Automatic annotation (TrEMBL):
<comment type="similarity">
    <text>Belongs to the UPF0065 (bug) family.</text>
</comment>
<dbReference type="Pfam" id="PF03401">
    <property type="entry name" value="TctC"/>
</dbReference>
<keyword id="KW-0675">Receptor</keyword>
<protein>
    <submittedName>
        <fullName>Tripartite-type tricarboxylate transporter, receptor component TctC</fullName>
    </submittedName>
</protein>
<dbReference type="InterPro" id="IPR042100">
    <property type="entry name" value="Bug_dom1"/>
</dbReference>
<dbReference type="InterPro" id="IPR005064">
    <property type="entry name" value="BUG"/>
</dbReference>
Length: 325
């Protein structure tokens, strides 16, 4: 064999060996625990969601899944930590639509950029509802609008995070209806709900979890939900589309992200683990009872959803001139 032929065969053999090694590494991932940084405090809705999926994902991955709560600064702290992590699939971010669809339009000094992340999948799709003090003479959105227009100072509404989706839903309603609505901030949904019950505040947009028992007990009235269809958790409450305001149909989601550059093989294994967890009937029934849907999707579809919502919220934020720098 001449030296040229030998060299070619050696190169071919080396390339084959490299390819096999890469394939073996891809098939063996993960080889150690996977850490999921949750950009929220322990005990809240996103934390409960992730901890419910944790054992099912561990089973699918064959490695421990560690939950690491990094709350604060409207999810910025958690997002920054993952943006700086190695892109090897072992550090992930669990966060909400606020992180990438809202925050970039509100703050010029964010410590992260969307380009530093790779979208993996949505985890949960949830919706808001519009709540009212039951002692007010309003049972429908139309009656609320009529009532608000008769009041010299309009109506007040609760917010629990300035710039969050519930706050922006109120701003969108103001814009669409032309109502005078004054936001009253609270630190948590429980405090906001109690303010509506007492009559300190007239109405409020918020998620369903805190309010379901209050609505069913007659302490608070739900006027409409922001989903595209009614929720089984409150089947008698119409959607905003049914009330004549389809532009107020807007929910929120939680999703999973990895640092940009994370290998395709790792992303595929993570997605498969999420899909396995999402098919668990017990877990699905728990969240359905809260008016939410476990709903995974492929990365491309998730990225499209993110871009669509970012454009929508960005247009609203620019139109009202809201900035939180």
């Amino acid at each position: 064999m001449n030296s040229i032929a030998f060299g070619r065969r050696a190169l071919a053999g080396g390339a084959l060996s490299l390819g096999l090694a890469r394939s073996a590494r891809a098939q063996s991932w993960p080889e150690r625990p996977v850490r999921i940084i949750v950009a929220f405090s322990p005990g809240g809705e996103p934390d409960i969601l992730m901890r419910g999926m944790q054992p099912l994902m561990q089973e699918a991955l064959g490695q421990p899944v560690v939950i690491d709560n990094r709350p604060g600064a409207s999810t910025q702290i958690g997002a920054e930590a993952v943006a700086q992590a190695r892109p090897d699939g072992y550090t992930l971010l669990m966060t909400s639509s606020t992180t990438f669809a809202v925050n970039p339009h509100l703050r010029a000094d964010l410590p992260y950029r969307l380009s530093q992340f790779r979208a993996i999948t949505q985890l949960l799709q949830a919706q808001l509802a519009l709540y009212a003090n039951p002692r007010l003479p309003i049972r429908t959105v139309a009656e609320l609008i009529e009532y608000a227009r008769r009041q010299p100072n309009g109506v007040t509404y609760t917010t629990t995070l300035r710039g969050g989706v519930a706050h922006l839903a109120g701003e969108r309603m103001k814009q669409i209806t032309g109502l005078q609505m004054t936001d009253v901030p609270f630190r948590a949904s429980t405090a906001a709900a109690q303010a509506i019950i007492r009559g300190d505040v007239d109405i409020g947009f918020d998620g369903l979890a805190t309010y379901l028992g209050l609505v069913r007990g007659g302490e608070i009235r739900a006027l409409a939900v922001t989903g595209t269809r009614r929720t089984d958790a409150l089947p008698d409450v119409p959607t905003f589309a049914e009330t004549g305001y389809p532009d107020l149909a807007q929910g929120y989601w939680y999703g999973l992200f990895a640092p940009a550059g994370t290998p395709d093989a790792a992303v595929a294994r993570i997605l498969a683990a999420v899909q396995a967890a999402s098919r668990n009937e017990h877990l699905r029934s728990i969240w359905a009872a809260q008016g939410s849907t476990l709903d995974s999707m492929d990365p491309d579809t998730f990225q499209t959803l993110l871009a669509t919502e970012s454009a929508r919220w960005g247009a609203l934020i620019r139109s009202i001139g809201l900035k939180l720098d």
